[in-house]
């Protein structure tokens, strides 16, 4: 997805603004990239339309190239597509809150049940798990240990998730297991009863999955759901799921009704096709993500971070955001027309310099520009120093000189005065720190060389 999108940005290099015409090609690339990432066609169509509308309607932001601006627009639309805000888990008004987990085999349901228990426990909630997977071979292993007690056993690391040895944290939550002979719906009924008796805050039910969606699984889930009357029905989706993600989510949502999804295995190299489809096809948000095999690797789903990951252009985004914050659009348009009519004066220069200063230290701003990593800290310090120097020179100019840079260009005497004044103010100041001395030193140097044409040229 990322490389496909890169082609889109590249087509805009050298353009000055986004227009209806010059975004046609890039939009085609974006469309192709999304389709290749298995986002469904209707979703892609709506997305592309939204981005195009935005792109053409957006004015120029000073300092931001059109391709960077398009990256930002695509990012914002991606965030919107994935639900915008973080979607919190919903808790029942009275205990217990019941969470039912569903999904295909191997997507990480059992792992998620334990992770979720730990996650909620950390929030001060008491939890209980119901082991509802009575089919999977691994699940039998899991249940052997549980069966020793038959009813409620302490759930410690590795008990529920067989075969994995990366669990660094003991979950320590009771599990209700009733062997493999009873139907899941009955296990659910008994488990819920037990949870009420123990007055736990949250019950999490793990269920069996199949490799494919089949009627038996859906029927079983429906039955379990009827018994539990869950607060949340969360569909566990493997982030690597490609093409079939949209259909999968749709089917589960239509058949059993989900309240949200959990995206697992985000630590893999998937770039997020599944993440894009969930909300759009079901209207239900992704609430949590699993990004590792350890028990603590579960966290809320942040649409903005996911968008950033999909685009892989976090640097450009924060750069554009900063530029947007700092510069009002009218300012930029005014500036543009000034540059066009060659009326860029020292006042504008000062405004620009200060806007850059407001964006943070120059090294940070430069660091945000792709390809500028090679600039050394010393070079940046030099640049900052000469900017400050120019600033103090502008400060001693007359208003007339500030508005008409050509006055300085035409008159060596004026140039000399400005250079001297800006240096002098510093020299006249009471004896200061070594640093100030150094600064005045460099100013003198500047004064000596001020007659050199290069400096004037920069201001014209
Ligand atoms: P279930 O069949 O849906 O219950 O899936 P499991 O919970 O048994 O998980 C299947 C495999 O995926 C196990 O080896 C897990 O350790 C692994 N797994 C689950 N979640 C994650 C995750 O977020 N990241 C990674 N890398 N592996 C995961
Ligand atoms: Mg399982």
Polypeptide structure, described:
This protein has three domains: 84 residues, Four Helix Bundle (Hemerythrin (Met), subunit A); 205 residues, Rossmann fold, CATH 3.40.50; 116 residues, 434 Repressor (Amino-terminal Domain) (Orthogonal Bundle). It is built from 21 helices and nine strands. The longest helix has 19 residues. Strands 3-4-2-5-1-6-7-8-9 form a nine-stranded mixed beta sheet, with helices on both faces. The chain is 55% helix and 10% strand. The protein binds guanosine-5'-diphosphate (GDP) and magnesium ion. The site of guanosine-5'-diphosphate has 20 residues, from α5. Magnesium ion binds next to α5.
Q: Helices and strands in order, then pairings?
A:
Elements: H1 2-10, H2 24-36, H3 41-57, H4 66-81, E1 97-102, H5 109-122, E2 127-132, H6 137-147, E3 152-155, E4 173-176, H7 184-198, E5 202-207, H8 215-228, E6 232-238, H9 245-255, E7 260-264, H10 273-282, E8 286-290, E9 298-300, H11 303-311, H12 314-326, H13 329-340, H14 346-358, H15 362-367, H16 377-395, H17 399-403, H18 405-410, H19 412-428, H20 434-448, H21 453-459
Parallel strand pairs: 1-5, 1-6, 2-4, 2-5, 6-7, 7-8
Antiparallel strand pairs: 3-4, 8-9
Helix pairs in contact: 1-2, 2-3, 3-4, 4-11, 4-12, 7-8, 9-10, 16-19, 19-20
The protein binds guanosine-5'-diphosphate (GDP) and magnesium ion (MG).
């Amino acid at each position: 997805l990322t490389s496909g999108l890169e082609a889109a940005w590249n087509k805009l290099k050298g353009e000055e603004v986004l227009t209806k015409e010059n975004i046609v090609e890039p939009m085609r690339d974006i469309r192709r990239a999304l389709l290749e990432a298995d986002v469904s066609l209707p979703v892609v169509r709506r997305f592309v339309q939204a981005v195009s509308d935005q792109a053409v309607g957006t004015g120029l932001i000073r300092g931001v190239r059109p391709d960077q601006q398009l990256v930002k627009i695509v990012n914002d639309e991606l965030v919107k597509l994935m639900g915008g805000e973080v979607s919190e888990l919903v808790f029942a008004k009275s205990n217990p809150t019941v969470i039912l987990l569903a999904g295909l085999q191997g997507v990480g349901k059992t792992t998620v049940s334990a992770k979720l228990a730990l996650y909620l426990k950390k929030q001060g909630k008491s939890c209980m798990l119901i082991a509802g997977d009575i089919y999977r071979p691994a699940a039998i292993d899991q249940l052997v240990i549980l069966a020793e007690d038959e009813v409620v056993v302490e759930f410690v690391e590795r008990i529920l998730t067989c075969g994995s040895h990366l669990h660094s944290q003991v979950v320590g939550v009771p599990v209700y297991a009733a062997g493999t002979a009873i139907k899941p719906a009955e296990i659910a009924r008994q488990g819920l009863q037990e949870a009420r008796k123990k007055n736990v805050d949250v019950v999490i039910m793990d269920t069996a999955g199949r490799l494919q969606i089949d009627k038996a699984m859906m029927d079983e889930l429906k039955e379990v759901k009827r018994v539990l009357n869950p607060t949340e029905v969360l569909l566990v989706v493997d982030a690597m799921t490609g093409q079939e993600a949209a259909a999968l989510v749709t089917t589960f949502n239509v058949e059993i009704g989900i309240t949200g999804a959990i995206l697992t295995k985000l630590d893999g190299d998937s770039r997020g096709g599944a993440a894009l489809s969930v909300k759009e096809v079901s209207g239900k948000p992704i609430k949590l993500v699993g990004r590792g095999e350890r028990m603590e690797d579960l966290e809320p789903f942040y649409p903005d971070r996911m968008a950033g990951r999909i685009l892989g252009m976090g640097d450009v985004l924060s750069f554009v955001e900063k530029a947007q914050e700092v510069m009002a659009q009218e300012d930029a348009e005014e500036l543009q027309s000034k540059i066009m009519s060659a009326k860029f004066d020292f006042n504008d220069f000062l405004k620009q310099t200060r806007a850059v200063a407001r964006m943070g230290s120059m090294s940070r701003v430069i660091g945000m520009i792709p390809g500028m990593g090679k600039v050394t800290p010393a070079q940046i310090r030099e640049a900052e120093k000469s900017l400050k120097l120019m600033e103090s020179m502008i400060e001693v100019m007359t208003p007339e000189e500030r508005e008409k840079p050509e006055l300085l260009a035409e008159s060596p005497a004026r140039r000399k005065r400005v250079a001297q004044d800006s240096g002098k103010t510093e020299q006249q100041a009471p004896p200061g720190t070594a640093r100030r001395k150094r600064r005045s030193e460099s100013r003198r140097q500047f004064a000596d060389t001020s007659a050199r044409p290069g400096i004037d040229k920069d201001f014209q």
